[in-house]
């Protein structure tokens, strides 16, 4: 299992994608290597039947399109998101406390906070600078090695720590970065040093940044029989990778779309989120050039298309089996999970679920189903939002995982291959009804 080429590519993708901006850049690079043509939203497009193209927004969201040779009648859509919960630096991040330089952080999304203590934390994101010639430029930054830590308080000084004490992210989670109360570099100095090392740039002025802390421990395949994948940001870079692999493995005969939105973990309400106009903007331009551009052509295309929203599902936890409905506890390595919620927190209905079950049958892939307990709240995905914005019939599926929203999550090592096979079969299908 450790030598499986798909898993190797997955681990490399996870390790080199510490932020949504890095994940998007890595996906664009992979698509371009496979022959996709890069488009820019600000430029005029000249789309041709049969070609493959990729476009980004905010450098953190991506849409890859496979245009059919035949008239554009239906699209096989896949959706995922590039962001993950975690700690992000505040604009004025430097804190001087006692003998330490610390960083002020904000919690992004619904992060599990306890696992962030005592981890080797690296720093990554994007930095906007003014170059010596006056040009403004955005640059990716990744320290790659640990530069900070959030140390725990010894149990001797907090005897109630194991009794459910709440964590205050404002006062108790500022990472330590640098020791010394005297002369020491500023955060700007450190950013310029790292930019020089990574981009050979000198004499720049730091104008602004969006920086995330992340666990420097690399992802791994583990277990006696290599049953597990452990790593950061499996939710939802695992789905981004799976959708990318499926699109690259498909036969390219049908119209297909992969959309990977940013900001799902904070509600999707942004220009590059699923609630924003990114997907509709791109598809409208496709219809204008490859269809007749009219409202009827648009409505017929959307209603003939199908969307599979891919976001990980809660696997049955052996220590907390009572947290699952007895009939709906998906297991690791048990195949893709259809996610159902009567209150439309997931977009699945019986028609879209039936299509996916038939796809899995054709692909020879096992399939599972998840419904949350009736006495527990249910999360959501980009599925219902995309379905609402576009009106496209949609299904929510995902790979089962443990420790969702932790700094290090766990999934089954066989499940990515299962879902890639199912999605490839979906993309290659001549008929969607």
UniProtKB/TrEMBL annotation:
Against Pfam families, the record matches this protein to: Peptidase_M18
Name the EC number(s): 3.4.11.-
Kind of enzyme, top EC level?
hydrolase
Q: Name one GO biological process term.
A: proteolysis
Query: Which keywords does this chain's UniProt record carry?
Result: Aminopeptidase, Hydrolase, Metal-binding, Metalloprotease, Protease, Zinc
**CC per GO annotation:** cytoplasm
Which Gene3D superfamilies does the entry link to? Aminopeptidase i, Domain 2, Zn peptidases
- Does the record carry Metal-binding as a key word? yes
Task: Name the InterPro entries for this protein.
Answer: Peptidase_M18, Peptidase_M18_dom2
Q: Which family does it belong to?
A: Belongs to the peptidase M18 family.
Q: What is the name attached to this protein's record? A: M18 family aminopeptidase
Q: What is the lineage of its organism?
A: Bacteria, Pseudomonadati, Pseudomonadota, Gammaproteobacteria, Oceanospirillales
């Amino acid at each position: 299992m450790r030598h499986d080429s798909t898993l190797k590519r997955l681990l490399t993708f996870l390790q080199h994608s510490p932020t949504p901006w890095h994940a998007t850049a890595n996906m664009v690079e992979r698509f371009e290597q496979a022959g996709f043509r890069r488009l820019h939203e600000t430029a005029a497009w000249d789309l041709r039947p049969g070609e493959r193209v990729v476009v980004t927004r905010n450098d953190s969201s991506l849409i890859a399109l496979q245009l059919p040779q035949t008239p554009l009648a239906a699209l096989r859509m896949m959706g995922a998101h590039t962001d993950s919960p975690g700690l992000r630096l505040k604009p004025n991040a430097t804190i001087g406390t006692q003998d330490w330089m610390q960083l002020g952080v904000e919690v992004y999304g619904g992060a599990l906070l306890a696992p962030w203590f005592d981890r080797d934390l690296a720093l990554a994101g994007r930095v906007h600078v003014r170059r010596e010639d006056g040009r403004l430029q955005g640059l990716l930054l990744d320290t790659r090695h640990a530069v900070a830590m959030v140390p725990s308080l010894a149990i001797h000084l907090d005897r109630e720590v194991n009794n459910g004490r709440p964590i205050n992210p404002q006062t108790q989670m500022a990472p330590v970065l640098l020791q010394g109360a005297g002369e020491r570099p500023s955060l700007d100095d450190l950013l310029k040093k790292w930019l020089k090392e990574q981009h050979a740039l000198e004499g720049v002025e730091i104008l602004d940044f969006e920086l995330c802390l992340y666990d420097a421990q690399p992802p791994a395949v583990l277990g006696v029989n290599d049953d597990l994948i452990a790593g950061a940001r499996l939710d939802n870079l695992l789905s981004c990778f799976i959708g990318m692999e499926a699109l690259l493995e498909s036969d390219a005969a049908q119209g297909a779309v992969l959309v990977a939105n940013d900001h799902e973990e904070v509600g999707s309400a942004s220009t590059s989120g699923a609630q924003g106009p990114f997907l509709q903007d791109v598809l409208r331009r496709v219809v204008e050039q490859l269809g007749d551009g009219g409202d009827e052509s648009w409505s017929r295309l959307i209603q003939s298309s199908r969307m599979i929203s891919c976001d990980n599902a809660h696997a049955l936890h052996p220590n907390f089996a009572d947290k699952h409905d007895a009939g709906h506890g998906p297991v690791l390595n048990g195949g893709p999970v259809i996610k159902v919620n009567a209150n439309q927190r997931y977009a699945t209905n019986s028609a879209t679920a039936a299509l996916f079950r038939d796809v899995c049958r054709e692909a020879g892939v096992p399939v599972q189903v998840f419904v949350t307990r009736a006495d527990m709240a249910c999360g959501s995905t980009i599925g219902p939002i995309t379905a609402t914005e576009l009106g496209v019939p949609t299904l929510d599926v995902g790979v089962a995982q443990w420790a969702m929203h932790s700094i290090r999550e766990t999934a089954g090592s066989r499940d990515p291959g299962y879902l890639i096979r199912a999605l490839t079969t979906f993309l290659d299908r001549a008929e969607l009804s």
